[in-house]
Amino acid sequence: MKLPRRQLLIDPPAASSSDIAFILIIFFLVCASVQPETGMAQTLPRTEEKQDRKQQSRNLEVSITPSSIVLNGSPLNLDEFRRRLTAALQAKKRPEDKVVVVKSTPKTPYDHWIRVSQAIDDAGGVITLELESERTITVD
Amino acid sequence: MKIARRKMTATVPSFAMGDIGFLLLIFFVILARVQDDSHVQWDPAILPNLEGAGAALANVAIDSAYKTYLNGEEIKNELLGPRLNAILGETPAGQRNVFLKVHREAQAQHFEPVIQAIGEAGGDLVHILEPEPEPES
Which of A5, A77, A92, B64 is 20 to 30 Å from the Cα of A32, by its Cα? Predict the structure, then answer.
């Protein structure tokens, strides 16, 4: 007579599965939140109320509008702007002469502004923002 | 005859101590990230040739509704300079990193006052941007 073999069912221990899943969730959460960020450092000179007008007039001036870039009065596209700016800054030796005065119209979008800004940085310029300040004058 | 009382030993189960320690460690790591601004909705501008941003003492963000946030907390532009001054304190130059996260469609009228405030506080400005994807060959 042939005896049927007793089948043994062996389950892997599942008691700690939820713990493992929870730890994995937290692990991926931490990994996602500590993803390194990329960016562009920018040197900013301290804002001063009084500016040396003589010095300012020697610096390069860039005007940015939503659709154009103007370097010392000449409208240029980004590639041409890079070339001209690099050439102009290479001729300047003193750090204070490498300051580029940037004036933007209020509607200039950030992604356009940051491209121009990167071009100035790459050319070795130091950006100074020229901001319009509001002043209340009381007239008697 | 005196029967000796059986001594009962009660031990604290230490089986799960490793798990508990590990969970506590992760809990404090998350808690330490007080500068979390993950709830701020913004799309970064895309630019080529970016570098690692390093670590920041403060995070300033302008979201898609053009509101300004300092370390995840909404703030008026006028108060940003003094608050940054307090955060940066006497930290030496070169370690005063302030991350600036600006929504790509924000306009100069929104982000220039913020950049001015960071400059006035003596922060080392780092624009947080997305690297341009490399062209497929």
Answer: B64
